[in-house]
Structures are given as structure tokens and as C-alpha cells.
Write a structure and sequence with these properties.
313 residues, Immunoglobulin-like, Glucose Permease (Domain IIA), nine-stranded antiparallel sheet, five-stranded mixed sheet
Length: 313
Amino acid sequence: MHPKKIDVLVASVALACVLAAPALGAAAPGASVPQGGVARWAGLAAKECGIYGKRYAAVDAICYYPIDLATSLGRHQIALWDQDGKQHLGFVQVEEGIFLEEDIELPPDRLRYVDISPADSARAAKEAAETAKILGGQGGVAQFSFPLGPPAHPLPQGAEDFGSVRTFNGKYSSLHTGRDYPVAEGTPAKAVADGTVVLAADQFFSGNSLYVDHGGGFVSMIFHLSSLAVKTGDTVKRGDTLGVVGSTGRTTGPHVHLGLRWLGKRIDPGFLLASPDLLPAVGPMTAAKPKAATQAPAKKKSKRTGKPAEDEG
């Protein structure tokens, strides 16, 4: 094996061992974070961060830790490497997220998304396999800062639908892993940060869809556009027009669907469109464990009695 490959392998194994180490003591810095949330470790001039056995670049000298909406509850070890290369260890205490159950009635002209033909089912499966390859991001230097830019101007209050289990016409279910914003048809849809369009395509469930890689393992998605203004391979800047808001695919009306993946983790876009100062901060944990500042408001808890048919953005 080439010496450089050996060095990379050794570094990867070492990181995995660090992040799989026994639980830290009570004095270790930590943060309480809901499933689908993001923790923030500021104040140490970070160069790199570590979680899930992965080491990745800090954003504006701050470490952020994305927590998937299905991350197991309890403590998860995290790491921060400062500008001098010194390692600091802490943890995130993952708390249960509260998600909606939604019953949605599609109009007669959209029943193909409920009574799905074999051809459409095969198409959707092929598209899901293609997008799965890009949702982990390409790594490299982060090209984004927080808060992210809004995906439309003006951006109304989003629906409390991140992580919801949706049942369509009483017999077809999906897991909604983005957030919907009731933006008027014809409104320009905007890039939330600099990046590269890794996929621009008409997809079965999500209609005209855009996937933008922003570096650092961070990918944004905007769905249901009436038309696209960019193509696969284009580079974009924060605020650039990507397309026009519409209602293509499985929808009941025009809106912006914004989805985010960071290190492949499904996170609530609402957290990163707001000030990063509102994110749960890694620091000393008291005996009375604090709740995350951005803990989602009370919702009807999803029973999750069965696995949804597919992961919707």
C-alpha cells in the first residue's frame, strides 16, 4: 500500500477510536440537542471538528455538529481541533425530537402519487439511488456561513413539518425530511450559499429539483420548482436564482421545499436559517440539564408505527 494511503488509514482509525471512546465525565463540555438539530462549539478558534468517526473542517473557526432526526438518544462524543492542532473532547446529549403526523389529501390530478404504477415506482427507485450518492456531500472546504441565505424573498414562516410522517389519501406514507415554506408561485428560488449544482433534474416525487453541494459535506435541496435556471455542474453564489417556485411533483400547491444534509445527516433547515447564536452551545453542563435553545415547539408526536414508504427530501 502507498505510504500516503497508510497515513490516511491510520488517521481515520485513530479518529474513529477517539469518537468511540468511553463516555466522558460530568465535567466535560456538552450540549443538549434535539434529534434533527445542530450543536455549536464556539470560543476555541477551531480548525477541524469530529463526530460519527468523521473529521471535517470548521466553519468560520467554529465547530458545528449535525444530529440526524433518527440519531439514537443519549450521549455522543464530539471533538474539536484548535488552530494549534490541540484536541478537545466533549459530547452532545441527544434528546427526543417531537414530530408531526400529517394526513394529506391529494387532488384527483395527483393520484398517480398514491396509486403508483410499476413504471413510476421503478423511476422513483432509480432516482432515489442516484440522489443517495450525492447526499453525503463531496467534502473539501466549506463554502457556507451561518445563518444561511433564505431560499426565497420574502421568506414566510415555515410549516412545522420537518420530520413528519405523511399519509397521502389514507394509504401511502413518507417521511418528510425538509421544511416547506408557503411561497407564491413564480417567486425566484435562491441559493442558500455558494456551491456547485450536483444535480438538476425533474424527479417523480419532488418535481423539478436542485441539489447544491456547498463543500464541507453540506448539501442543500430545493424541490417542486416550476422551472430550473441552472444545470448540473454550474457554480452558484449565495442569493443566485436557481429556478422559479411552483408545484411540480407530489404537492397540493406551490411552495418552497428546502432540505439539508450535513455529513449525510437530515437536519431541520429552520435551525440554520436563524442566528447561529441560538443553537445549543457546547459548554459546562449543570446537574439540571438545560434544554436546547432551539428545541422545536410542541407538536403532535408521530407514532412511527411503520416505516414510511420513502424518505421525502
